[in-house]
Design brief:
Elements: H1 3-31, H2 47-59, E1 65-69, E2 72-73, E3 81-84, H3 111-121, H4 125-132, H5 137-178, E4 199-200, H6 203-218, H7 220-223, E5 229-230, E6 232-233, E7 236-237, E8 241-253, E9 258-271, H8 283-289, E10 299-312, E11 323-334, E12 342-353, H9 363-411, H10 418-422, H11 427-450, E13 459-460, H12 476-493, H13 495-499, H14 503-541, H15 551-562, H16 567-572, H17 579-621, H18 627-633, H19 652-660, H20 662-666
Helix pairs in contact: 3-9, 5-9, 5-12, 9-11, 11-12, 14-15, 14-17
């Protein structure tokens, strides 16, 4: 006999015996009522009265009893439990129901039923397996999801790196070709910078830089190693343009220290009718011919814009295919500061174009391409199923919370506290729902990128460029990377939940949970002190120290000092031209380092260690319980005792088990029933 069903049969039998005993006591109570309506003294019934009671019991019709199995009427199980069909306002209620929330509204709900129901809710997957023999499908699904989404991220990371690296290399190539005096030391981002910004300081140098860019564009097919072509529209060459932005009017006279300025910015553009393979060009003569006079006193910036086409042939087959790009380059001369230094920079925007061509792929390549599509679709399907299961679990938890609140209100006349109500909110399930949504969105964008649905005629990201959103579009690659990256971060972070089933790892997780409130409160106080140091350092040291030139760089510098990074360089880089600033920088840096490293970080460690010692003490002496958990702990049945079986609760586990285990159940065709009524 199944031990779980055997336990249920005896529970039902005891319930029937209790009802019979209650009926006997009720009959005995009626015999002790005196004729005038007052209650008589308790005394033993006479032999005649006992015979009358026995006769009345024999004449009564016994209640209809049916035998049911764990999932309804027992058709293939050898034994079942008894469920009396009696008129009641509570519907189908039984002593072993643990998840049916409709019966809790009944005033006849007993504390033992509620305790079993709540205890089953707070069990971990291992205990639920012993309680109902239901396979932990959500756990298996999460493990499978980790494998699939991680494989998906690895494939996309390779594609993303190849894409960004190609566009960055294209910008470096254009910098060498279109910027006169470009040095390879400017290509590597080092700290501190190995060289100053590229700039021009004389008018003649400005025209030489501009002429150099124009002649390079004219001879691009002859000079460039890369494959480039000019852009045509309706059969005509799209000419490069020269745009100037300057103040609308005014003058500057340093002789008598006078000036007049109209701060309205006027912008004008002119096409450069340069022909192909022109090796000599004079921008100064061309502007004079067009009556364009450059007033460098009022000039803000000048932009030379050109358009080219190229094809990216180097791809990771079969995951990528050759792509056609429309490149928009801008050589920018920045004179906003009017400090005698005109900065020179180059920006590139890449627009994906429709490409016509064919590639002969090997048979292995087609197989890999199918696997990529399979991983994308599988990832979406798994996350959708996971999202549905977790939302369903959260919804059922809230139903149980409502029924528990009503039970405590009716049975004990008290309300659950906020802490007790939050016991029904599983934050791990919320975390899973969030990462499922992120991965679904990222996977859909990834499919669109691979099929080029979201890329045609849109400008894409080029690292270090100001033309990222040239036409107002968000870069789809970055958005997709953000969704997939955050989704995988939360997926792996959610693995801590399963490590929490082991005592050794659970100590660390509970320590984090215990110390987070105190750490957050302490961080608020710390943030005020940190903000004061940042604002002060930015104001006083900004003009004299390159690490303090902006508020963000000041915060990054101070945060690095807390972690002991680059301390000596920060001290030695302070300019000593002003003695007051130099002495202030020493006092400022010494006080900050001493306060944050020796005091504040030590207090952080003390808060975490205090939480760790508290958790260790809880494991030795027991965890503090609120009223709800004390009520649940009164249920002493073990998960494997069989009392947590629920005949009326049909969940997704039952559907899966009925599909996967139908062959095993069909082999059990015996119809032996235990006689429950005599």
């Amino acid at each position: 006999m199944n031990p779980a069903n055997h336990g249920q049969c005896h529970i039902r039998r005891n319930s029937r015996d209790e009802r019979s005993e209650g009926l006997s006591r009720e009959h005995l109570g009626h015999t002790n009522i005196s004729q005038n309506g007052t209650e008589g003294l308790e005394q033993a019934p006479s032999p005649q009265e006992l015979e009358d009671i026995a006769q009345s019991l024999q004449n009564q019709t016994p209640p209809e009893v049916k035998v049911v199995g764990p999932h309804g009427n027992c058709q293939r199980s050898c034994y079942g439990s008894v469920s009396s069909i009696l008129p009641t306002d509570c519907g189908h209620l039984d002593d072993t129901s643990t998840t049916n929330t409709t019966g809790v509204h009944c005033p006849n709900m007993t504390p033992s039923k509620m305790q079993r129901r709540l205890k089953f809710f707070f069990m971990n997957p291992k205990e639920k397996w012993h309680a109902r023999r239901r396979f932990p499908w959500k756990l298996l699904l999460q493990i499978f999801k980790i494998v699939v989404v991680t494989a998906q991220l690895c494939l996309f990371a390779q594609q993303r790196y190849s894409h960004v690296n190609y566009l960055w290399d294209t910008k470096i190539s254009f910098s060498h070709m279109f910027l006169k005096g470009w040095d390879t030391t400017r290509e590597v981002q080092v700290y501190p910078p190995g060289s100053g910004p590229l700039a021009v300081y004389e008018k003649q140098d400005f025209f030489q830089y501009l002429d150099y860019a124009i002649t390079t564009y004219s001879t691009i097919n002859e000079k460039a190693i890369g494959t480039y072509s000019y852009k045509y529209r309706d059969g005509d060459l799209v000419l490069p343009t020269l745009c100037m932005a300057q103040y609308a009017g005014g003058y500057v006279s340093p002789n008598n220290n006078t000036f007049m300025l109209n701060d309205t910015i006027a912008k004008s553009c002119i096409d450069i009718p340069v022909q192909m393979n022109v090796t000599s060009w004079s921008s100064e003569a061309f502007l004079k011919k067009k009556n364009y006079i450059l007033n460098f006193d009022l000039l803000m910036n000048i932009e030379f814009t050109f358009h080219l086409h190229t094809i990216k042939l180097r791809v990771n087959l079969p995951f990528d295919t050759p792509e056609c790009y429309g490149l928009t380059g801008k050589v920018i001369f920045n004179n906003h500061d009017h400090d005698g230094q005109m900065l020179v920079n180059l920006d590139v925007a890449a627009q994906v174009l429709e490409c016509q061509g064919s590639i002969k792929l090997a048979s292995e390549a087609y197989t890999l391409k199918v696997w990529r599509t399979f991983i994308n679709v599988t990832s979406i399907m798994i996350c959708i199923i996971s999202l549905i299961m977790c939302v369903r679990a959260l919804y059922r938890a809230q139903l149980l919370r409502k029924t528990t609140v009503l039970f405590f209100r009716q049975q004990y006349g008290k309300e659950l506290s906020l802490e007790e109500r939050m016991e029904f909110v599983n934050l791990w399930y919320l975390l899973i729902c969030i990462n499922d949504i992120f991965i679904i969105l990222g996977s859909c964008l990834k499919i669109g990128l691979e099929s080029k649905t979201y890329r045609i005629h849109r400008y894409e990201f080029v690292k270090g460029s100001d033309l990222v959103n040239y036409e107002g579009y968000l870069d789809t690659w970055n958005v997709c990377s953000l969704f997939l990256g955050l989704g995988n971060l939360l997926v792996w972070f959610g693995c801590l939940r399963y490590l929490g089933f082991f005592t050794t790892y659970n100590v660390l997780i509970l320590t984090l949970k215990k110390c987070i409130p105190n750490v957050l409160r302490y961080s608020i106080c710390l943030l005020m002190v940190f903000a004061g140091y940042c604002l002060c350092g930015w104001l006083v040291l900004g003009p004299y120290h390159f690490k303090f030139r902006s508020f963000s760089s000041t915060m990054e510098c101070l945060y690095s000092l807390i972690n002991g990074d680059d301390m000596f360089a920060t001290f030695s880089s302070t300019s000593g031209k002003d003695p007051m600033v130099w002495w202030f920088s020493r006092i400022y840096l010494y006080s900050f380092i001493s306060l944050f490293i020796y005091v504040i970080l030590s207090l952080f460690i003390a808060i975490i260690m205090d939480a760790y010692e508290t958790i260790k003490n809880y494991y030795e002496n027991g965890f503090p319980l609120n009223e709800l958990m004390k009520f649940v702990e009164e249920c002493t049945e073990e998960p494997s005792s069989g009392v947590f079986q629920d005949e009326d609760d049909h969940t997704i586990h039952d559907v899966i088990n009925s599909i996967c285990c139908c062959g095993y159940e069909m082999n059990q065709q015996s119809a032996e029933y235990e006689p429950l009524l005599t």
